[in-house]
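Quick one: structure for this chain?
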Amino acid sequence: MLRDFKLIVSTARGNERGMINEILFLLRDQLGDGEAAAVRTAVRGIIVARTSLDPYVVVEKLCGILRERPFEFRFALRIIPVERVVLTDLELIRKVSFELASRIGENETYRVTVEKRFTALHTADIISSVAEGIQRKADMKNPDKILLIEIMGAVTGISLVKPTEIISVMKEKML
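Got it. Here's what it folds into:
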């Protein structure tokens, strides 16, 4: 698996090969990233992609493509930008989470969201460990920012995103 991925893309189980081709087409042909790479993970239905472009810009541009040409998205379910990738270790996750959370504005609210696969770490332990060091108001329903912790076995992708910076393909197609 790529250790320096910038995107996590979910698809229906069994569609991983089609999803890899789709995301590479979008990154290389539509966005001009000749260095893009994508591979399967140990988790069925999840692929990761490396891009030389800013992952937030990629998500923004892909969202524009999705609105203009939804037929370009046949396999993607969700596309998530990733800022940092670390080994799955609670202290490393906590350290990087604090670094990213320092960008949460004084008057902004946040939520910690953990999506975990193939790990013995407990969601509640991760959230409490991370949240105790963030001196901002939490809002579970409508946060300004989401500290997203995506654990996939031995590696973890961490991002601080606005709710609009995660592409949910089905929701977008229904708009």
